[in-house]
């Protein structure tokens, strides 16, 4: 069963296959300012249904943040799949992962989800 996420005005709408078991709260300067809570999916699991208002902010070559250019809501993005990182060689994974701002999910009480904090301010 698909679950849907959209910005406030509906100009960006996406579908994901399932609800997350846990979400992350990143402390990087971008995420801290937007207040996003992220759920992660394989790139091919996320379907963009409406993209009329989609805009992209890419502060570096690693991360893409998508938001609605009409209402300003941060909806989703992509980044390297850090779970595949080789800490010993300090290489950046080439495989990307999709991140969905669970605050945009429709009819979901995100306050019941387990939240893990990522120290993005220090890590990147």
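-> sequence recovered:
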């Amino acid at each position: 069963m698909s679950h849907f996420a959209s910005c406030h005005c509906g100009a960006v709408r996406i579908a994901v296959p399932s609800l997350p078991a846990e979400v992350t709260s990143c402390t990087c300067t971008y995420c801290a300012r937007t207040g996003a809570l992220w759920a992660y999916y394989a790139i091919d699991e996320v379907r963009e249904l409406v993209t009329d208002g989609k805009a992209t902010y890419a502060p570096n070559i690693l991360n893409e943040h998508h938001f609605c250019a009409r209402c300003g809501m941060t909806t989703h993005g992509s980044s390297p799949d850090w779970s595949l990182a080789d800490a010993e060689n300090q290489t950046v994974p080439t495989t990307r992962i999709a991140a969905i701002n669970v605050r945009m999910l429709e009819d979901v009480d995100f306050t019941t989800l387990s939240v893990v904090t990522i120290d993005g301010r220090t890590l990147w």
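The radius of gyration is 14 Å.
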